[in-house]
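The step that takes the researchers longest sounds almost clerical: writing a folded protein down as plain text. Below is the pair of lines this work produces for a single protein:

——
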Amino acid sequence: MINRRKFFAGAAVATGAAVLGRVTANAKDAAAPNASTNAGASPDSSNSDSRYRPVITPNGSTLPWKLVDGVKVYHLTAEEVNNHEFASGLIAKCWGFNGQVHGPTIEAIEGDQVRIYVTNKLPAPTAIHWHGLFLPNGMDGVSGLTQKPIQPGETFKYEFTLRQHGTHMYHSHHDEMTQMALGLMGLFIIHPKSPPNPPPDRDFAIMLSEWKIVPGASRPDPNEMTDFNIFTMNAKAFPATAPLVVKRGDRVRIRLANLSASDHHPIHLHGHSFKVTETDGGQIPESAQQIAATLLVSVGSTRTIDFVADAPGDWPFHCHMTHHTMNQMGHRFPNLIGINTAGLDQQLRKLLPGYMTMGDAGMGDMGEMGMPNPKNSIPMTGGDGQFGYISMGGMFTVLKVREGITSYEDPGWYHNPPGTVADTASDADLKRDGIRM
């Protein structure tokens, strides 16, 4: 049957709805003797270890731990997550840890002894690699090389002392192409034993990733090598990415980790510059720290940036690969730029009532048209803003800097002072400055 989905010029798009809720970790630890439990199960909660300010994982959570005879004990469960929502309208069957994609952030302190149990509830063997950590070879987590694979139904124990601080990761190291493509990864943050003074007021951690999900499908394609169509921050695509809310004058840290399959991401912050203070190898000496507004985060690496939020407003924070700030309905779309489509709609409406040709003058207005999407897919671009439709999606969020706020809840859109918003030039302006139309 002929329908609009089969006409290349009529690809459907619709407005996505923001999903800003946080996920709570699904801890499965049993009670243990001589054990006390931390209070760091949610991104903004205080942690019973007062030596550091907890990291915020937007759209994510922090893994709870217990102190057992001086050892911090964690429990990860690798399992299917059948209802992960990348954005409103796109729900996929992924693999994750403790019921979420990506897995919860692990936090600890340099010098801590940690014991991490990993239970495998997947239909395949797995193993967990502690990416970037200094540890005994047999704890490195490479299936077949440094350990046996964790078979379905088994629980393995990893135990080591943290000998460094910085932003690190954990991920499957068994059939990585499949298991990482389905979501088996997370952040591992180690705070310094002697924290800097003063510490950051807001400390965010963001995992960058990419996926291939064919419109209408419900499972990411792990065999894809080049043509990814969903780009995410903490496994969410804009407009479902939570904003980064800060108070004017806050010292802000953003930790970026990239476990994409093959794409590097130049991450750009509007309205501010920042110092690049850490790599995945550790702290950069202050004399060598570079000042930038865009930072390339390569595959398999982490980078940390620090800055003072001194400019109130709603500032984009996004990958500058232009195709990484759009979603799946923008991929494999034909190039109609400059084509004369006069009369085409009238002819095609004989077959498809209501048909509209789109894309002959660009794609910026596609999300506003409100046409239905194919099943289980999201529009090419994002969602509503206070000045109209925001024609970006994917690896994009907003840094919201506000004066004098008392809460870090989403404050809504920024109210610009009078006279500070670009708008249509008046005839008087044009005449005064000699601008000819």
